[in-house]
Design a protein that fits this description.
There is one protein chain. About 40% of the residues lie in helices and about 15% in strands. It is an alpha/beta fold. It has a single domain (about 25-155, about 195-245), classed as Undecaprenyl pyrophosphate synthetase, CATH 3.40.1180. Strands 3-4-2-1-5-6 form a six-stranded parallel sheet, sandwiched between helices. The protein starts with 13 loop residues before the first helix and ends in an 11-residue tail after the last helix. Bound molecules: farnesyl diphosphate. Farnesyl diphosphate binds near residues 36, 57 and 60.
């Protein structure tokens, strides 16, 4: 057991047995998650959808606590897509409110642990109160690098690519011939961050939903039927074990 997990995982538990199987020299550096199923989780319990989001926030906390202890460096969470504005206004308002409250309450935890918060997406349209909290926490944590959380907010993978092209054309005026994949990567929202090694989607849907279209070219994808509010530490360990069982060839005929 690695030191950071001692005292966190109960000795003799099922989780401990699973953790023993992890090869800590072959961890994914970057895990991205499409957190799906909050609404269905609530519906199954005859609760309003917003209760699903509240429970989803608890799962966010558990995963944010688990990933750095396991040695994962980057976590990207798809929290609000550009398409999510189509939802009932009340639900949209609640989601942004939940995030603002979460940041108010938990920012000290991020600071204490030296975690950095990043936003990927178009921040301009985010409601003022939430935007203010986001800017505050991003400013406070910008120099930390123990663990980096990217929150995808008002995010669209296609918009991200278009935004990169706009910046290249309008600001940096790079000639077509000088552009290549490496240079283009410097213009996307996740510039400087390695591409996700593992993409997790909860609730069983087999879709990418406009998430990290450029970055997931060679990510391993793991879909679980578990609804996001029920996703826990053990599921994260299972995802990592599954990831480690895959042979990543990156187009080659042997593992890279
Ligand atoms: C998907 O479930 C979830 C979302 C669109 C929002 C994600 C939000 C959270 C996990 C909680 C809040 C956390 C933050 C960081 C703001 P869905 O509503 O699409 O579920 P459904 O497909 O079952 O309807």
């Amino acid at each position: 057991m690695i030191e950071s997990l001692r005292g966190f995982i109960k000795p003799g538990s099922e989780e401990e047995a699973l953790i023993q199987k992890i090869d800590f020299s072959k961890l994914p550096k970057h895990v991205a998650v499409i957190m799906d199923g909050n609404g269905r989780w609530a519906k199954m319990r005859n609760l309003p959808r917003v209760e699903g989001h509240k429970a989803g926030l608890k799962a966010v906390k558990e995963i944010v606590e688990t990933c750095p202890r396991m040695g994962i460096k980057y976590l990207t969470l798809y929290a609000f897509s550009k398409e999510n504005w189509k939802r009932p206004q009340k639900e949209v308002k609640t989601l942004w409110g939940l995030l603002a409250n979460y940041l108010k309450k938990e920012s000290s935890v991020l600071v204490k642990n030296e975690f950095r918060l990043n936003v990927i997406g178009q921040m301009e349209q985010i409601p003022e109160r939430t935007k203010k909290e986001l800017v505050r926490v991003m400013d406070m944590t910008r120099n930390y690098d123990k663990f980096i959380i990217n929150l995808a907010l008002n995010y669209s993978g296609r918009s991200e690519i278009v935004d990169a092209v706009k910046k290249i054309l309008d600001t940096d005026r790079i000639k077509g011939n000088d552009l290549n994949e490496e240079l283009f990567s410097k213009y996307i929202y996740t510039s400087g961050i390695p591409d996700p090694d593992l993409l997790i989607r909860t609730s069983g849907e087999l879709r990418i939903s406009n998430f990290l279209l450029w970055q997931i070219a060679y990510s391993e994808i793991w879909v679980t039927p578990v609804y996001w509010p029920d996703f826990n530490r053990r599921n994260m360990i299972e995802a990592i074990l599954e990831y480690q069982s895959r042979e990543r060839r990156f187009g080659d005929i042997k593992a890279g």
